[in-house]
Write a structure and sequence with these properties.
Oligomer: single chain
Distance between the termini: 41 Å
Radius of gyration: 22 Å
Number of strands: 29
Largest sheet: 6 strands, mixed
Shape: globular
Number of helices: 4
């Protein structure tokens, strides 16, 4: 079976269930554009967080591409996880009514693209328990041949939750941070010890690398069954950062926004993004972005199917700044929020820029530049940080019943009061 290789395959050890935290990760270089999102009536649904209701009729969809001439047999398996993304104690038949191995049989060949690929689609099976899940996709029926793993969540609206974005309690951060205050009513649950049984997770722009875990409330009222999380130590604060940078790759016969040039060759398409510079000395500017996500689309074939008609392009990004002792990264969904090897930029001593090249399918891509420290990625030194920045926040509330073997996801809300999308 022939396969089109663009870059050498990086060998990864297979995923060992239950031994480590399970994460979003692509393990094979020939697997591209992996997305899990709730089914919707328009293309914008691919931007939404992979969260669905336990009792709802809206399923989750998986889409991904395999850079190959011929289709493979891919299998999928669900793994139930606890609130910390470790494998839970549930058995497969505790959360599924069918055998836990599914063949991904729905696929299409790319149409007249320079780099051939097979586009796969899969509807995630309905489960019977709420909580965190991993969708593990592997080649054939060999679970050691893991292609990728993707996180998704299923919630049941058992608790009532309210949340708001407010100025930080710490006055020193008021101009560049956003605080999420949360209130929970747990009157519908059998809660004996709220502080130990309930865990609140805050997420910004669908990221897990900088999520916040709140376990100890600042206020507890047992008579009204109410918990408040209005912390004063910064544990519920996020760096507000800046609106995301972006490139428009919807065109190959013309240059999209923030694209310097496009070179169409016989077997591949090259593109150079405009040279980026730090934004710390610039005034905050409001504009539409995708909050770090990306959107697959092509304007070269109007009315067609962008999932199989979009070209893959080798896109080079350059960042002009002083050479730094710490590594510089490009973060966003396009680099799996810094996990992909290409997320780390290399210093070019001749051009005096950092640069990296990514293989991207036609569409619209958001990104930012960051330094990587011991506590994670920090964007402020390159992007600035402004309280006015529009960000998407999610509040996930987990509950472990006494004697239970798993964490229920008993409430979920999406907080984006000033939503500005393309």
């Amino acid at each position: 079976m022939s396969r089109f290789w663009l870059i050498p395959l990086i060998c990864f050890s297979f995923l060992a269930e239950g031994l480590a935290q399970l994460e979003d990760k692509v393990y094979k270089d020939h697997i591209q554009s992996v997305r899990v999102f709730p089914a919707g009536i328009d293309d914008e649904s691919q931007l939404n967080s992979p969260v669905v209701s336990l009792t709802g009729s809206r399923p989750l969809l998986l889409r991904f591409d395999d850079l190959a001439f011929d289709p493979e047999l891919y299998s999928a398996k669900l793994i139930h996880c606890d609130a910390d993304w470790n494998k839970s104690q549930l058995r497969d038949n505790d959360f599924l009514l069918v055998f836990n191995e599914f063949n991904i049989q729905d696929y299409d060949y790319s149409i007249n693209t320079r780099i051939p690929y097979i586009h796969y689609r899969f509807q995630v099976p309905q489960v019977t328990k709420s909580g965190n899940y991993i969708l593990k996709v592997y080649r054939g029926r060999d679970e050691s041949e893991v292609a990728f793993t993707k996180r998704f969540m299923v919630y049941e609206q058992l608790f009532t939750v309210g949340a708001a974005i407010v100025p930080p309690s710490q006055t020193s951060n008021r101009r560049g941070a956003q605080q999420i205050n949360t209130i929970i009513n747990y009157s519908k649950g059998e809660v004996m010890d709220p502080a130990s049984q309930i865990k609140v997770v805050l997420r910004q722009n669908q990221r897990w690398d900088n999520s916040k875990i709140l376990q100890k409330p600042t206020f507890m009222n047992e008579s009204s069954k109410t918990l408040r999380y209005e912390l004063f130590d910064g544990k519920n604060e996020f760096d507000a950062s800046n609106e995301f940078r972006f490139v428009d790759l919807r065109f190959i016969r013309a240059t999209g926004v923030n694209i310097a040039n496009v070179r169409v060759e016989t077997d591949v398409i090259y593109a150079d993004a405009n040279i980026n510079v730090p934004r710390t000395d610039q005034v905050y500017s409001q504009y539409l972005d995708l909050n770090g996500q990306y959107f697959i689309y092509t304007n070269d074939r109007p009315g067609g199917n962008p999932e199989v008609e979009s070209e893959y392009m080798l896109v080079t990004f350059r960042f002009k700044t002083e050479e730094n002792a710490s590594p510089v990264y490009m973060i966003g969904s396009l680099t799996q929020w810094g996990v992909a090897p290409e997320a780390k930029l290399a210093w070019d001593p001749k051009l005096k820029v950092y640069q990296t090249t990514l293989l991207l399918k036609q569409g619209w891509y958001d990104y930012q530049f960051a330094l990587k420290g011991e506590s994670g990625f920090v964007t402020e030194s390159f992007e600035g940080s402004y309280f006015e920045t529009e960000n998407e926040y999610e509040v996930l509330v987990y509950f472990r019943n006494l004697g239970s073997r798993y964490d229920q996801l008993v409430s979920y809300i999406n907080l984006n009061p000033n939503k500005r999308r393309l």
